[in-house]
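Record 1 of the preview.
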Amino acid sequence: MKRPFQSTQTNHDVESAEQSETTPWLQHTRWPELFRNRPLDIIAAAARQSRLLGGGSYLLGRYRGSPLWSSAETEAQLRIILQGLDLMFDRARATVDRTPYMSRCWLNTYSKDTFWPHGFRIIPSFKTYLAIWKRFICFVFRVLQFSSRQHREIFNLRLGSTEVKMMQYILYLVGQLQLERDEFHDGLVVANHEVGDKESQERRDDCGVDSDSYYDSDLEDLEADEDSGADTDQGFDDNTESEEEEEEDAETDQKTGGDGSDFCLPPGHWLRLSEALFQLSMMFWTHQDPAGN
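->
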């Protein structure tokens, strides 16, 4: 029996309560040095998640006496991009759920000759990490709309040519989804991504995909699950609970044969968007600037 897939979608903002520049994290990231003499209020505002509700332009702050706005177009694009990130991480989580327990143990094993009997699993802070990554993606796409001079003067951010190219491709896919959404709501077409693509239609039907749900930009904010423990790293030191979860994973795997999720990939441009966002994320995860950071 399949376990029902639980989406990791969240619009939870993770705010840092620590303002000191002497914390180990800030020393490690060198953010005080990176953003020295820059408008920190604007940088912080640029890293806030774009809300699914509402619309219009977004005031980032004032720079040299003039208001600095993120355009309504950029904010609308970000709302779709955030949904694409949800799909990207949901797909990754579903892959873990569907990977047999023994295989996840081997993936978590450092030596080829010594088996480590603890399966690779989703960490308790997963939702917190997802929220932080959404904020970073909002930040870089908001910065992209400004000139190269403003990138340096205000944000001290240098985007590489490959990163910019991928971001522009993502914005192209977002534009296609916006067109499809408008056509769907106008009753001109029925959200068909490729004419004559029976396989795509059958997959959409089998997965129970409601096309309208993908194109609705007025969805309510999803509340973070306060009881899930996702916002803390608690549980890492609880060996008893960890062992119980390991046993539960192994037992469930034996019953389901490793097929532990009913998540289905969306068709068409939503699939392409989630894959493009994964490629962009990999670029940033493996990025190293000339200073060695």
